[in-house]
Amino acid sequence: IKAVGFDMDYTLARYRSPEIDELAFTKSLRLLVREKDYPASLLAAEFDPKFSIRGLVLDGVRGNLLKVSRERRVVRATHGTKPMDPMAIEACYGRRRLSTTAKGFRSIDTMFEIPESHLYALLVDRLDHGKLPGKDYIQLFKDVRWGIDTVHREGEMKAEILAHRDFFI
After folding, report:
1. What is d(CA 92, CA 108) in angstroms, rounded to the nearest whole number?
2. What are the C-alpha distances in Å from 87 to residues 8, 75, 94?
3. Closest CA relative to residue 118, chosen from 15, 41, 46, 43
4. Per-residue pLDDT tens over the stretch 82-106
5. 137-153 and 113-128 helices cross at what angle (nearest 10)?
6. pTM
7. Is 44 exposed, middle or buried (0-12, 13-18, 19+ CB in 10 A)?
8. Which of 13, 29, 89, 99 has minimal CB crowding within 10 Å?
9. Cβ contacts of residue 71 below 8 Å, gap of 6+?
10. pLDDT tens digit string along 118-134?
C-alpha cells in the first residue's frame, strides 16, 4: 500500500490545503476547457484560497455565493467574486428564510466544495462580461459540479496526489 486516504475530512490522511484545493480547481478547469468547450483563456485563472470557506451557500440560479445566518437569512453575498451591497442582497433575497435545499442551491460544507465555489464565481464573472456565450448561471453551476466530480471520480487527482504525496499529504 502506497497511500491511504478517506475523503478530505482528514479521517486517515491530513491533506494539505490550499495545495489540494488548487489541484482540484486546476484539474476541473482544464477538464471544462477540454470537454465542455470553455475558452482556453480560462486556463490562466488562479485559485484564491481566501475566497471561500466552508459554511457558505452557493446560489447557482443567480450566480451568488451567500453567507446565511442561523435563521437562514442572507447576511453577506457576492455575485461572482464581487461583493453585493445590502440593498442588492435585499432586492434579491428579501428578509425571508432561505430554503437552501431548493433547486440550484449547494451548501459549501466540505473541503471539496471550496475550489468548486471559487471556480463557479470566476466563471460567473466571465459570463457577466460576455466571455462565455451560450451559457447561463445554472449551466455554469452544473458544469462546475460535473468537473469537480469527474476529476475526483476518474482518478486524475488521485494519480497526481500519489505521484507527489509528500507535497499533498
Report:
1. 20
2. 37, 11, 9
3. 46
4. 999 999 999 999 988 988 788 889 8
5. 140
6. 0.89
7. exposed
8. 99
9. 97
10. 999 999 999 999 999 99
| Catalytic residue status for 7 | yes
Mean pLDDT of the chain: 91
Residue from 9, 37, 109, 149 carrying the catalytic annotation = 9
Active site residue 37: no
Confidence bin at 17 (pLDDT 50/70/90): confident
Closest residue by Cα to residue 147 from 27, 61, 44, 1? 27
φ, ψ dihedrals at 12, nearest 5°: -120, -25
Amino acid (1-letter code) at residue 35: E
* Mean pLDDT computed over 157-163: 90
User: Burial of 131 by CB count in 10 Å (0-12 exposed, 13-18 middle, 19+ buried)?
Assistant: middle
Q: What gap in Å lies between CA 66 and CA 75, rounded to an integer? A: 8
User: Do 61 and 131 contact (CB within 8 A), yes or no?
Assistant: no
Is 53 a residue whose pLDDT tops 70? yes
